[in-house]
Design brief:
With 172 residues, this protein is mostly helical. The protein is built from nine helices and three strands, in the order H-H-E-E-H-E-H-H-H-H-H-H. Strands 1-2-3 form a three-stranded antiparallel beta sheet.
């Protein structure tokens, strides 16, 4: 369960990266104080303007990478062979995600969380945390690697319950 928690945190701290991107993230994509990569999802869909995701390598992120990383493999998580087929990748991605999500579900139960705890929620939490701390939707969109901010709206949770009271204080 600790590994599952660490992977969730790693996704969150990697600009809310998708697990598929983390699975194929390589050590050589760490460039100085940043991790720079292209999302798997947009690799084949965008012909022009393939946007690079740039992740600031913070101390907390470095700690997580050191903890779960496998330096004897070109891929940070060390779960892929140097050469692999699309089919192998898809199977490995599915199998590992399934196991981690099962462990995250156990954590959710232990902590009595109302919201499901899954790998995909790391992206939502990343975007929502930035939004609730005053970052613009356009900046969040850029950090997530979206082509436009309309797509980003799906990742942003609604306003907090407390905020609804502050908003309605403006009523006459």
């Amino acid at each position: 369960m600790e590994y599952a928690r660490d992977i969730w945190l790693l996704l969150y701290r990697c600009n809310g990266a998708n697990f598929a991107d983390l699975l194929r993230m390589k050590w050589d994509q760490i460039q100085g104080d940043y991790i720079v990569f292209t999302r798997k999802k947009t690799e084949n869909t965008r012909k022009n303007k393939k946007r690079k995701i740039v992740i600031p390598l913070t101390d907390k992120l470095k700690e997580l990478i050191e903890k779960v990383g496998n330096k004897s493999n070109p891929y940070i998580l060390g779960l892929l062979p140097e050469e692999y087929t699309d089919r192998f990748f898809d199977n490995k991605n599915h199998k590992v995600k399934q196991q981690i999500n099962q462990d995250l579900s156990k954590i959710r139960t232990k902590l009595n969380l109302k919201t499901p705890l899954q790998l995909g929620k790391a992206r939502d939490c990343y975007a929502t945390t930035l939004y609730r701390n005053g970052e613009s939707v356009d900046d969040i969109s850029h950090m997530l690697g979206h082509g436009n901010s309309i797509v980003t709206q799906r990742y942003l949770a609604s306003i907090t319950m407390e905020r609804t009271f502050n908003i309605n204080k403006s009523l006459l």
